[in-house]
Give the backbone structure.
Amino acid sequence: MSATTPAARSRARRFVLQALYQMQMTGCSASDVESQFRQDFEMKRVDTRYFHELLIGIEANMPELTEAYSAALDRDESELGAVERAALFIASYELIHRIDIPFRVVIDEGVELAKQFGASESHRLVNTVLDALARRFRTVEQGSVRER
């Protein structure tokens, strides 16, 4: 049974980041990496449904997601590290396709992934890009936050 708590979703994002990293390094498909992760890792406390949704959804929407976050970059997308790219894929997917998740949660989770796994200052880049994406894709939600 898949856990559905906020902590279980955070764990799912961590595994997705690692899976996306592996996909970038090896060229494997999301389904191949997902099978391997389910076999090799203890996923009892992971929201495995969300892990699956993110991994498959990101793979299916990579061009759209790349275009979305690239527009907010101050450099060429090819200059990103694999961890930063993976964190941006996850958060971009959530900002665009999972509007049920508050944008602040998406940004916080993306920044935390970059802090944990990325280069020393990568979380700043991720934060800047995600803030721009939230302003672009979550205008209604951002407006209600400002009105408080």
